[in-house]
């Protein structure tokens, strides 16, 4: 909720900018995992000249390099490492250098990926170069996301939701680009080149949006002179916590303390003291306040990355070969997941349930572990241990709907609840901590994907 004396976000330009920045942060990752058929063809040694890249269904083909698993793991380990290092970069490197420099580096590395479409090379070197590019891109993405989440921690929670919705839309954008490439009818090389140039345009748009923020009054109000706003924002946060009380009776001990605190602040007899600047927030103190929410975020991403895309990309249609069989996985795995994930993230714009005081959130998060065996028992032809219990396409589609919407909603919910559990001057630290735990969950899930794939 914005303060009463805050300027208006004219034409919602700041909201749109953060939405596009969210889109730009996850475009590279989504374009890599959605292009699994392209990489499988290149790694099979087919070469550019003979491979029908992005034109036919290669999802069920043999994955000799375990590309699905490695691209996930080598995306998330650098993300975890550089999220840890981001706390040091925060003190040593100016914010503009971190954000703008990361965007430019990601742009150049993804341009390299697009250029490799035109280069014939053997599978081994191509795999090595691609994995190195994935590592570097996600290292810069970690710095970028940590810095942007830190900025969002000082702004109304609506902007965090917009940013997360933009990240969710990145997957839809990549899946649609994949489908258009498959259905375009142009030659395979042109189709693949157009596919990989698309995220470069998206990152350029992100750069323009970031550079426009200092010229918008609403953004300057929240992003400049953060410390001078801390005391006023603290009173606002306390008022927000008390808004949900019924009949004037606080519903928790925390809110009783806030009520007393507000009463003391209103006493006219109190002597005017020198205004005290809030001290440097303690990471440990902030962690004590948000540890349960952070753990929920870790578990959500652990479940998601343990099966998506390593297991889900292997699921094929049980129908006879044809158009539906060709488009089944791009539509039912990637497009459906990203649409429902984006919808789930967007739902927090309308309500936040359960709230930060509820113990229902950990229960809902733990229930998502049921998706792991459900997907492993779907129609994956390449298996040697587990049976196929859910062969029909409808089972996989139903599981994916629930899996994706729960992922998007719970991720957005935890990211929105964390800043509400701390004092205003601690929100930036809370945002950085949540980014670290987000990366930790992604890394845990990526590591587990090797085990679950081996159990098939």
UniProtKB/TrEMBL annotation:
<dbReference type="GO" id="GO:0032238">
    <property type="term" value="P:adenosine transport"/>
</dbReference>
<keyword id="KW-0812">Transmembrane</keyword>
<comment type="similarity">
    <text>Belongs to the SLC29A/ENT transporter (TC 2.A.57) family.</text>
</comment>
<feature type="transmembrane region" description="Helical">
    <location>
        <begin position="360"/>
        <end position="382"/>
    </location>
</feature>
<keyword id="KW-0325">Glycoprotein</keyword>
<keyword id="KW-0813">Transport</keyword>
<dbReference type="GO" id="GO:0035344">
    <property type="term" value="P:hypoxanthine transport"/>
</dbReference>
<dbReference type="InterPro" id="IPR034764">
    <property type="entry name" value="ENT1/ENT2"/>
</dbReference>
<dbReference type="Pfam" id="PF01733">
    <property type="entry name" value="Nucleoside_tran"/>
</dbReference>
<feature type="transmembrane region" description="Helical">
    <location>
        <begin position="162"/>
        <end position="186"/>
    </location>
</feature>
<dbReference type="GO" id="GO:0015862">
    <property type="term" value="P:uridine transmembrane transport"/>
</dbReference>
<dbReference type="GO" id="GO:0015211">
    <property type="term" value="F:purine nucleoside transmembrane transporter activity"/>
</dbReference>
<feature type="transmembrane region" description="Helical">
    <location>
        <begin position="192"/>
        <end position="213"/>
    </location>
</feature>
<dbReference type="GO" id="GO:0015207">
    <property type="term" value="F:adenine transmembrane transporter activity"/>
</dbReference>
<dbReference type="InterPro" id="IPR036259">
    <property type="entry name" value="MFS_trans_sf"/>
</dbReference>
<dbReference type="GO" id="GO:0035340">
    <property type="term" value="P:inosine transport"/>
</dbReference>
<dbReference type="InterPro" id="IPR002259">
    <property type="entry name" value="Eqnu_transpt"/>
</dbReference>
<comment type="function">
    <text>Bidirectional uniporter involved in the facilitative transport of nucleosides and nucleobases, and contributes to maintaining their cellular homeostasis. Functions as a Na(+)-independent, passive transporter. Involved in the transport of nucleosides such as inosine, adenosine, uridine, thymidine, cytidine and guanosine. Also able to transport purine nucleobases (hypoxanthine, adenine, guanine) and pyrimidine nucleobases (thymine, uracil). Involved in nucleoside transport at basolateral membrane of kidney cells, allowing liver absorption of nucleoside metabolites.</text>
</comment>
<dbReference type="GO" id="GO:0005886">
    <property type="term" value="C:plasma membrane"/>
</dbReference>
<dbReference type="GO" id="GO:0016323">
    <property type="term" value="C:basolateral plasma membrane"/>
</dbReference>
<keyword id="KW-0472">Membrane</keyword>
<dbReference type="GO" id="GO:0015213">
    <property type="term" value="F:uridine transmembrane transporter activity"/>
</dbReference>
<dbReference type="GO" id="GO:0015854">
    <property type="term" value="P:guanine transport"/>
</dbReference>
<keyword id="KW-1003">Cell membrane</keyword>
<keyword id="KW-1133">Transmembrane helix</keyword>
<feature type="transmembrane region" description="Helical">
    <location>
        <begin position="97"/>
        <end position="117"/>
    </location>
</feature>
<feature type="transmembrane region" description="Helical">
    <location>
        <begin position="290"/>
        <end position="315"/>
    </location>
</feature>
<feature type="transmembrane region" description="Helical">
    <location>
        <begin position="12"/>
        <end position="33"/>
    </location>
</feature>
<dbReference type="GO" id="GO:0015210">
    <property type="term" value="F:uracil transmembrane transporter activity"/>
</dbReference>
<dbReference type="GO" id="GO:0005326">
    <property type="term" value="F:neurotransmitter transmembrane transporter activity"/>
</dbReference>
<feature type="transmembrane region" description="Helical">
    <location>
        <begin position="394"/>
        <end position="417"/>
    </location>
</feature>
<dbReference type="GO" id="GO:0015212">
    <property type="term" value="F:cytidine transmembrane transporter activity"/>
</dbReference>
<dbReference type="GO" id="GO:0015208">
    <property type="term" value="F:guanine transmembrane transporter activity"/>
</dbReference>
<feature type="transmembrane region" description="Helical">
    <location>
        <begin position="327"/>
        <end position="348"/>
    </location>
</feature>
<keyword id="KW-0597">Phosphoprotein</keyword>
<dbReference type="GO" id="GO:0005337">
    <property type="term" value="F:nucleoside transmembrane transporter activity"/>
</dbReference>
<dbReference type="GO" id="GO:0015853">
    <property type="term" value="P:adenine transport"/>
</dbReference>
<dbReference type="GO" id="GO:0016324">
    <property type="term" value="C:apical plasma membrane"/>
</dbReference>
<feature type="transmembrane region" description="Helical">
    <location>
        <begin position="429"/>
        <end position="452"/>
    </location>
</feature>
<feature type="transmembrane region" description="Helical">
    <location>
        <begin position="70"/>
        <end position="90"/>
    </location>
</feature>
<dbReference type="GO" id="GO:0035364">
    <property type="term" value="P:thymine transport"/>
</dbReference>
<protein>
    <recommendedName>
        <fullName>Equilibrative nucleoside transporter 2</fullName>
    </recommendedName>
</protein>
């Amino acid at each position: 909720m914005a303060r009463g004396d805050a300027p208006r976000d004219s034409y919602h330009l700041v909201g749109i900018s953060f939405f596009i920045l969210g889109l730009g942060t996850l475009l590279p990752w989504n374009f890599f995992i959605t292009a699994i058929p392209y990489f499988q063809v290149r790694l099979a040694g087919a070469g550019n000249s003979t491979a029908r890249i992005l034109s036919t269904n290669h999802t069920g083909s043999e994955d000799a390099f375990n590309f699905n698993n490695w691209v996930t793991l080598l995306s998330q380990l650098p993300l975890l490492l550089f999220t840890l290092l981001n706390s040091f970069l925060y003190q040593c490197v100016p914010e503009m250098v971190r954000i703008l420099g990361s965007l430019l580096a990601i742009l150049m590395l993804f341009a390299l990926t697009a250029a490799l479409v035109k280069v014939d090379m053997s599978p081994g070197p191509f795999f090595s170069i691609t994995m190195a590019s994935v590592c570097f891109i996600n290292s810069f993405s970690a710095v970028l996301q940590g810095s942007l989440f830190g900025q969002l921690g000082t702004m109304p929670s609506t902007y965090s939701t917009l940013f997360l919705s933009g990240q969710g839309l990145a997957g839809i954008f990549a899946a649609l680009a994949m489908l258009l490439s498959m259905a375009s009818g142009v030659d395979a090389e042109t189709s693949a080149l157009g596919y990989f140039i698309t995220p470069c345009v998206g990152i350029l748009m992100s750069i323009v949006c970031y550079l426009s923020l200092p010229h918008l009054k609403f953004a300057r109000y929240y992003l400049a002179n953060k410390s001078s706003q801390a005391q006023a924002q603290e009173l606002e946060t306390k008022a927000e916590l008390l808004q949900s009380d019924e009949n004037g009776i606080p519903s928790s001990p925390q809110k009783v303390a806030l009520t007393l605190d507000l009463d003391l602040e209103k006493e006219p007899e109190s002597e005017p003291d020198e205004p005290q600047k809030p001290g440097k927030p303690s990471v440990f103190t902030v962690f004590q306040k948000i540890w349960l929410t952070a753990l929920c975020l870790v578990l959500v991403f652990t479940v998601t990355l343990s099966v998506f895309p390593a297991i889900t990309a292997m699921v094929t249609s049980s129908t006879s070969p044809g158009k539906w069989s060709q488009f089944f996985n791009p539509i039912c795995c990637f497009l459906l997941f990203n649409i429902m994930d984006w919808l789930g993230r967007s739902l927090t714009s309308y309500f936040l349930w359960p709230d930060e005081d509820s113990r229902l959130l950990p229960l809902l998060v733990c229930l998502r572990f049921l998706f792991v065996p459900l997907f492993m028992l779907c129609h994956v032809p390449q298996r040697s241990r587990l049976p196929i219990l859910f062969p029909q396409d409808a089972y996989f589609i139903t599981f994916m709907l629930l899996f994706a919407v729960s992922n998007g909603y719970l991720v957005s919910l935890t990211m929105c609840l964390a800043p509400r559990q701390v004092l205003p001057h601690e929100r930036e630290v809370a945002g950085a901590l949540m980014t670290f735990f987000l990366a930790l969950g992604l890394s845990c899930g990526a590591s587990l994907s090797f085990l679950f794939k081996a159990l098939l």
